[in-house]
Amino acid sequence: MNDMIEHSKGYIELIISLKEKIRVAQHKAALSVNRALVILYWEIGHEILTRQAAEKWGAKIIERLSVDLSHEFQEMKGFSQRNLKYMRAFAEAYSDKQFVQQVAAQIPWFHNCVLLDKIRDKDERDWYIHKTIEHGWSRNVLVHQIESRLYHRQGKAITNFSRTLPQPQSELAQEVLKDPYIFDFLGIAEEALERDIERALMENLRRFLLELGVGFSFVGSQYHLEVGGQDFYLDMLFYHLQLRCFVVIDIKIGDFQPEFAGKMNFYLSAVDDLIRHEDDQPSIGVILCKAKNKVIVEYALRDNRKPIGVSGYKLTESLPKKLKGSLPTVEEIEAELKTDEKEAK
User: Fold this and answer.
1) For a designed S-S bond to 196, which of 192, 225, 299, 335 qualifies (C-beta 3.0 to 4.6 A apart)?
2) pTM tops 0.85, yes or no
3) d(CA 69, CA 209)
4) pLDDT in tens, 10-45
């Protein structure tokens, strides 16, 4: 009888449904606990700031509080001096409690600590908080996006989207593209050929998708199209789940040339006619070049009827060696935060 129940269609549907409900409830509970913790830490930090200003207390108050709070609440492990300093910095960075309750408390505490450590500008910090909430970035991914200067690259490609795509599709498409793209994870020299870059991107597809951003789904490399009895091959073809369209990527090793736009226009016409579904949005082309002259790109795209964006790419890290050596790596940040993270659990 038990075997019959266990293998019945109704029972299988029931167990799948219950497991999903439990996972959703666990996730909501975890978010609720994190939100309460972040708000508590802000309130502690705010109290420290207020009392230090009123009583003219120095930094020694942190040391004293750490001892007393750790002794009183031995079951809570988040009252180290380092974590209390983060609480104070957190309250100082965000004076608006409502913002903390509605926004900052939606990401884990140690995500907030990373943002305090690495970003001084409030608008930039807020942008990363919203992106973390939107995309569910882990702390490692957040660190990577900060170190790659995503805030300064997002939406910066030169495009003709405002003229070739309807609203709000054009704005979303513009926001999806970056300039430049950072391919320092490929481990190849600047003089690499187009085929070398494409092959290296395929070998590092997971990192490439991370650099492209959320929503890109890989379709193929050297994707074959037959037009007029002749064979043509797209460098890389993706489908973007939010834009609901194909994205053709063409890789060039030199400076942008006007004829690149004409070739991409041809590719997009072929993709739209041969593989685009009737429910899909118009396909988008992205030309990646080592360098580009903004005026030449704008002229090349001005009267083009297909949506095309042009971005640069970098194969090596742009930071000087001296500066690079002075910045912490992901591993160093992980090690630095490891102790306090264990305490906060």
Assistant:
1) 192
2) no
3) 45
4) 767 767 776 777 776 666 666 677 888 899 999 999
